[in-house]
Amino acid sequence: MNVTIMPAGDLAPPELARWAELQRASPLYRSPFFRPEFTLAVARVRDVRVAVIEDSGSVAGFLPFELGRARQGRPVGWPFSDYHGVVLDGAATVDPRALVRASGLATWSFDHLPAGMAAFEPYVFGLGRSPYLDLSGGFETYLAGRRARSDVRGALRKARKLAREVGPLRFVPESDDRDLLAQTIDWKRRQYAETGVRDVLAETGGRDLLAHVHAVRGTDFAGVLSILHAGDVVAGLHLGLRSGHVWHSWFPVYNPELERYSPGLVLMLELAAVAPALGIGEIDLGKGEARYKQALATGTVPLHEGCVGAIPLAALPARLGVSARRALRAAGVHRAARRALRRGG
Predict the structure, then answer these.
(1) pTM for this one?
(2) What is the architecture, at CATH level 2, of domain 136-280?
(3) Is residue 151 within 8 Å of residue 295, measured between CB atoms?
(4) Over the Cα atoms of the chain, what is R_g?
(5) DSSP-assigned letter for residue 289
(6) Diameter of the chain by CA atoms?
(7) What band does 56 get if pLDDT is binned at 50, 70 and 90?
């Protein structure tokens, strides 16, 4: 294995084409986050490097990463990246520890690594799941399987009520409206503030990343802004990523003045309704246990969390840090802190 490190922006067209070829070749990499276009969008706002892996004289894989303090590597676009890992030829093998060393890193941490990347299993110390909607049989087939969920039945009722009391529903699957993208960001930041969740859009770079992704309109990768209208009112907005038959739900948000109508859930059902006609067979909701995800999902993608050290024990601090955060969450400390912040505001 020979590894060459270069800035993401220096990748030549043949290398980008090879990356795209590898991404399309395996269902393991079906997420839009594995596309080179996502890495290039991040590289417009951050210092992104790519480990180009060669085997027997040909390019066999790519690992994009960002370099933190003390040579600590992190996934490209973190914490905006809902999937990450090495994009590798199915016939090739990689030693994660050797790859980290060759990349000039002390560690490389991950928290959304697909479970199928077997070489990384020795470095895993946490599990997660990303719920998804299987729409391969069409929307009506999907909906028939979810009507037993009270949340879904309630959303269908509230959709009718929203249409009666506010205005007829109209769903726009894809919009290039930059003002509505700004509205998406404003509503999302308000939601973060009200729930006490870390505001990942507080910095200009994060907001610029969303704008760069939204501007991409390729056939293999696109940033898609969808809009749910109720009459003349914008009821919900959704910035997602699309690649192949997968639509990834990235930044869904709803009009806070219409909260009683559950517009966020209505929006997701509208998204699912139009998806099959657009060639979409799967909507990935992103890792998490939110109630709406459990109501809509038909399955989950198993994910791994962990850290690869260039030498043994280098990943120990990362492991201890994750264990401490989990202990705090299990004790309800994070929830209590959020409630205290809201009371103080």
Answers:
(1) 0.91
(2) 3-Layer(aba) Sandwich (3.40)
(3) yes
(4) 21
(5) -
(6) 66
(7) confident
